[in-house]
Amino acid sequence: MKYELDTVTERPELWCNEDPVRPELGTDFKTKPGRGVFGLRKGETYVAFLCYALTTGVPKSVTQLDFMTTKDGSVAVPYTVWSHERGAGKQIIRKVVEKVRDTGMAKRVVTLSPLTEMARKFHLRNGANELQVNEDTVNFEYQVKTT
Questions:
Q1: What is the pTM of this model?
Q2: Are strands 35-42 and 3-7 parallel, antiparallel or unpaired?
């Protein structure tokens, strides 16, 4: 069955109580202007979610992410992703990078990931490059432009 990427920012009942990566960031934070939530749907069932912000630069912390977010930011920053089905996390990252590339939504895709081995393996395995390690986070960059 084929996966579909939907914008589900305005449907918090689907995702608001599920975020295992950054559960401290509530619905208000995730739906401010310049931020949004994508859902990966398989049939009628959502199998993964990704929260992102559009920023003016590469944030090193959630505080910087908050201050750098703007509706016309040039960097799409996935800051949390989770899935309910094996392989769905990989698929939602791929679909979001494709969307950014195909729509011109941003010039870059750079994560604000937790400083964990699981996050590192996930992003490297899915084609990102480690951009920088920060005090509490790490940034991975996904190639947007086709070479």
A1: 0.95
A2: antiparallel
